[in-house]
Amino acid sequence: xxxxxxxxxxxxxxxxxxxxxxxxxxxxxxxxxxxxxxxxxxxxxxxxxxxxxxxxxxxxxxxxxxxxxxxxxxxxxxxxxxxxxxxxxxxxxxxxxxxxxxxxxxxxxxxxxxxxxxxxxxxxxxxxxxxxxxxxxxxxxxxxxxxxxxxxxxxxxxxxxxxxxxxxxxxxxxxxxxxxxxxxxxxxxxxxxxxxxxxxx
Length: 201
Fold this sequence. Notes:
Protein name: Thiamine pyrophosphate-dependent enzyme
CATH superfamily: Thiamin diphosphate (ThDP)-binding fold, Pyr/PP domains
Strand order of the largest sheet: 2-1-3-4-8-7
Number of strands: 8
InterPro entries: THDP-binding, TPP_dependent_decarboxylase, TPP_enzyme_TPP-bd
GO molecular function: carboxy-lyase activity; thiamine pyrophosphate binding
Pfam families: TPP_enzyme_C
Radius of gyration: 16 Å
Keywords: Decarboxylase, Lyase
């Protein structure tokens, strides 16, 4: 069930597990900060790659995965601040046009990692409009609980790339930390994706 805050906004810790439900072998990249905590709170997974740094890089990491593994669905879950820093990646994603890539921005209009300052999406900047202008063929705006399931289905079935913004409450939540060691995360992800071949290089 998708929860709504007193302010009438979707709550991130109910949206993220709903989007990850029945994920199968989908590859997931979680942008640094709250999105990484959200996917961990939903259940740590070997095929999830949470970022501890590289702000602005989540979408392009997902792009690389989608190109390298066209047989797998790839989902990037990131925040508005992180997406704004890497907004130029939308042009490259549109040009490369991987059909198996979905990017979902959890937009609370805040820089959660640096004190909750307002991002530009809280001042009228439209990330969906930017994605459309870049040429991304499928976009969605999610504001209501009943729209989340449609997004989940699109992530699994659309011929993308797909770009969606989910408006969420700017609440501060307890941390749910994934492993901190980048080498461990990388090795775990490679092992889960490649199996024994991960150890042949």
